[in-house]
Amino acid sequence: MAIISSATIIRALSLFHLSLSYFLITSPSTLTNQSLVFILGASMQLPTPSSFANTSPASALTALVFALLGYTDLTACSLPEEVSSYFWGSQAPVRCTFFFALTGYVYAFKPKGPIRAASEKESPWDHLNNSIVFTWSFVEMICWFWVRMPCFAFLKIRLPPYSWSLTVHQIFITLRDERSELAVRQAEKKRVEENSL
């Protein structure tokens, strides 16, 4: 049995969305003052937006979108295991790819970024190039990659002085592994039902 399953990661991410929604409604400045936002923004040389100093209609709308995303993901996590594995099996790669592209865009097209030309005029997309969007997309990308990543058996963690070892595979189970386990359980259940007839 895994310590952290993909459903646990998705539920934690849903609660993260609900927390973001709460802070965007009550005090968006707390998001800009978070150490993770500051560290990632400073390391990537991204500006911190000043529009998060006070609540605004845009932050309220964003909060509603995050609340909807959090509640729908929590609802989808409570689906039966057969349905949930197929749903998240299709959602995880799409979301991971989207957030990978967004994270790359924010970094590549930042002011004085590697791709952006110095003489290029400002565009409406420039509002995405800030530390808050980068941190949010980076955290989402990591979580969705974690949900979908294949675990390799050669990654072992040796825990001395114990005589047993714990593999990464035993700690983190991904959707693919959970789907395989579900298929085995369903086949076993079907075999037992056929034998009882």
Molecular structure report:
There is one protein chain. By secondary structure, the chain is mainly alpha-helical. Strands 1-2 form a two-stranded antiparallel ribbon. A hairpin with a 6-residue loop joins strand 1 and strand 2. It is elongated, with a radius of gyration of 21 Å.
The main sheet orders its strands as 1-2
The radius of gyration computed from the alpha-carbon positions, rounded to a whole number of angstroms, is 21 Å
General shape? elongated
Q: Could you tell me how far the N terminus lies from the C terminus, measured between alpha carbons in angstroms?
A: 31 Å
Q: How much of the polypeptide forms β-strand, as a percent range?
A: under 5%
Specify the biggest β-sheet: 2 strands, antiparallel
Compute the number of strand runs.
2
- Structural class designation: mainly alpha
Low-confidence stretches: 150-172
Summarize the helix and strand pattern as letters: HHHHHHEEHH
Mean pLDDT: 81
Helix content: 55-70%
Number of helices: 8
